[in-house]
Amino acid sequence: MAEKLTLAEKLWRDHLVVKGENGAPDLIYIDLHLIHEVTSPQAFDGLRLESRDIRRRDLTIATEDHNTPTKDIHLPIAEPTSAKQVQALRDNTEQYGVRIHSLGDKNQGIVHVVGPQLGLTMPGITVVCGDSHTSTHGAFGALAMGIGTSEVEHVLATQTLPLTPFKTMAINVEGSLRPGVSAKDIILAIIAEIGTGGGQGYVLEYRGSAIRELSMEGRMTICNMSIEAGARAGMVAPDQITFDYLKGRPHAPAGEDWDEAMEYWKTLKTDDGAEFDKEIFINADELDPFVTWGTNPGQGVSLMGEVPSPDSFDLASDQESAEKSLQYMDLQPGTKMKDIRVDTVFLGSCTNSRIEDLRAAAKLVKGKKLAEGLTMMVVPGSQKVRIEAESEGLDKIFKDFGAEWRFAGCSACLGMNPDKVGEFKRAASTSNRNFVGRQGKNARTHLVSPVVAAATAIRGTLSAPSDLED
Amino acid sequence: MEKISNFTGVGAPFRYSNVDTDQIIPAIYLKRIAKTGYEDGLFSTLRQDPDFVLNQPEYEKAQVLVAGSDFGTGSSREHAVWALRDYGFKAVFSPKFADIFRSNCGKQGVIAGVISNTDTVKLWEKMESEPGIELEVDLPSQVVRCGELEINFEIDEYTKWRLSEGLDDIGITLQNEDKIEEFESRRASWRPKTLPVKGD
Description:
- The complex is a heterodimer of chains A (470) and B (200).
- Chain A is α/β, with parallel strands linked by helices and 470 residues long.
- Chain A has 15 helices and 19 strands.
- In chain A, the strands form five sheets. Chain A has a five-stranded parallel sheet with strand order 5-4-3-6-7, with helices on both faces. Chain A has a five-stranded parallel sheet with strand order 17-16-15-18-19, covered by helices on one side.
- In chain A, α2 (41-49) packs across α5 (149-158) and α6 (183-194) runs parallel beside α8.
- Chain B has a seven-stranded mixed sheet. Chain B has a two-stranded parallel ribbon with strand order 2-4.
- Chains A and B meet through α2, α3, α5, α10 and α11 of A and α3, α5, α6 and α7 of B.
C-alpha cells in the first residue's frame, strides 16, 4: 500500500526536481512567480550583473501594489523615490519581457488578489513571491511561500528554489461560526492560541467543518495570516467551492486540461491515516469576534473581553512584551475592548479587500453615518474588485456613509505610500500586522474583521455587528 | 560572497524580543532600488532614543548582535538583512529566528546562529559588564567565545557549508540544469502560464 501523505507532502513530492543529499536542501520547482516593485529591483540587478536571463517569463507576472498611490492615479507619482521604484519595475519587466499590470490597468492591484482573480492561482501548484503574505494562495490547495529578494533572483534565473522540507501541522476548526463571526476571527484566535512563533518551521493545513463552510475569500483570509503565526505556508485542501471559484477565470485550465487537472486535484487531500507532526483544535461554535490589543498579531482577545493584565501571562518574556505593548497602545489592563474608541478605520489589505469583504462591510454601513470624529478609508484589493464593487453600488454606499473610496493597492496596511494612520491615532484595521510603527509613526493598530471594522465605524468604539441591533 | 571562517568583533547586547522586520527597517526605507546603503534605516525608530544600545560609543563598531527570541518576524523584506550587513554586523544570535529572515541571512553572508535562552542572557550580562568586549565567532566549530564564555550555536549544515565556501546559490542550482529541463518536459499542460495573456 502506498505511503500515507499529508496534502503538503504530496505537493512537495510532485515538485521535487532533485532530492538533496548529505544535508543539502531539496530542489523544488516553482509553478508561478509573482513580483512587485519593492522586492524585485535588486533581483533584476543581480541578473544583469551575472548576465543571466529569466528562465520562464511565461510563469512570471508583475503588478504594482506596495508603493503606489490610491488616489489621483492618473497623475505621475508625486514622491520621487516611489516614482523611481515603480519605474524600475516597468523598465525591468520591459527589458526581460515579463507581463506587468501597471496602475490604471484592470488587473493591477495587490499581488495576492491579482493571482487568484486571473485564475493563475490553482490547486496543486507551487507559488512564490517576494512578500510574506504569499501564503494567501494556499487557500486553493497550493504550496505558497513568501521569499526574500535573493530567492526572487534565484527563481527568475532557475524557476526553482532549494528548500528544506517543512514539518506539518493540522489546524482543525470544527463547528459553525455564529452570525457576525468570520474567517478573520478564526485566524486571529488561532494565532492567539499558538503564538507568533507557533507555526515556525511548519506548513499549516486548515481543516474541519468550519473551514469547509468558508468561501474562497474566507479561506484566503485565513491562509494569508499563516505567516503571522510564523509558518512558512498555510493551506486548505481544494473542494467543490475551490473548483467553482476557479472555473471560467481567464487562466484557469479549459477543456481537456480542466478534466485532466480535476482528476489530479481530487487527489489533493491528506490521506486518511497520514500523520501530522502537530495537531491543534479550535471550536468554531464558541468563537466570538476577535481583536488585537497589543503590538503583535498574537496579542488578541475576544471583542467581548477586556485588555489583559501583563501579570496574567505565565512567561516573564510575555509579561514584558505585554507591558511594552500596552504602553505603546496606551491601554490600561481591565479596559473593556468595546470601550476602546478609535480615530480611523481601514478596510483593505491582502487579508480583507476582496469583493466579499467589501460587500459584508457595505451591508452594515448602508444608510448609516460614520461616527463623529472618525475617518475611514476603503481600499479595494484590485482595480477589478473596485470596478465590480462600483457595478454593485458599493462605492456609493461607502461614500454616502462618509468613507473615502480609493484605488487598489497595499495602502495603509504598511504605510509605504502616502496612506498612513496619523501619529498617536488609533485604527481599527482589517490588515494583518499591528506592529509598532507599521501603519505610521506611533500609530496604534487593532486588527479586526471587515464586519467589526464596519460596526466600529458606525459606533466609534470597537464593536461587533450584534451591537448594532441594540 | 566572501568565505567566512572565524572572526572577532565587538558584540552588542540587544535586549529585545519579538523584533519584527518592520522594526529592523521600516517600510519607508524600502523605496530604494539600490542593493547597499541601508545602514541608516537599521532600527531607525529605536535609534532615536539616545540611550539605545547602538547609540553608545562602545558599540559604534559592533559586528555581532545578540538578540532576544523571535527575531526577524513578519515581512519577508531582505532589506532587514541588508541593513544589518551594511551597518557592519556579520553575525546575529538569538534563541529563535523567523524562517524567512534566517534564510535571507544565509544569502547575504550574515551568520544567524541559534543559542539557548540561558546563553543569551549570559552573553548580555557579560557584554554589559564589559561594554565593547569582543566576541570571537568560530563558524567551523559553531562556537561563540566572549571572555571566559564559550557558547555553542546552531546553524544548519548546508548554510554553514555555503557560508564557509562563499558559494552562490544560483550557481549551485544551475549545476542541475539538465534535471530542471527534464522536470519541465513532464510539466502538465493544465498548469498555469502567465503568457500568452488571456481574458480581457
